[in-house]
Description:
- The longest helix is centred in the N-terminal third of the chain and has 38 residues, at 2-39.
- The protein has 1 helix and 2 strands, in the order H-E-E.
- It has one domain (2-63).
- The protein has a two-stranded antiparallel sheet.
- By secondary structure, it is mostly helical.
Amino acid sequence: MNTTAGILAGLLVAGAAVTVYRFARRKAGDLRAAIDEIRGADAGKAGGVIDFEKDPETGIYRRRA
């Protein structure tokens, strides 16, 4: 009887772990979607990186050619 109870308890713990993992993953997806909505849909697509380099003579940063 103890062996059967141990196997059953192990299966229940594994099932609970999978359920908790799926719940956390779903909530993380919802949170990620909410953050993206706050930032705006086009926040990552707007423009690009402006690359500057320091002019050794003047020390002023100018747009890289």
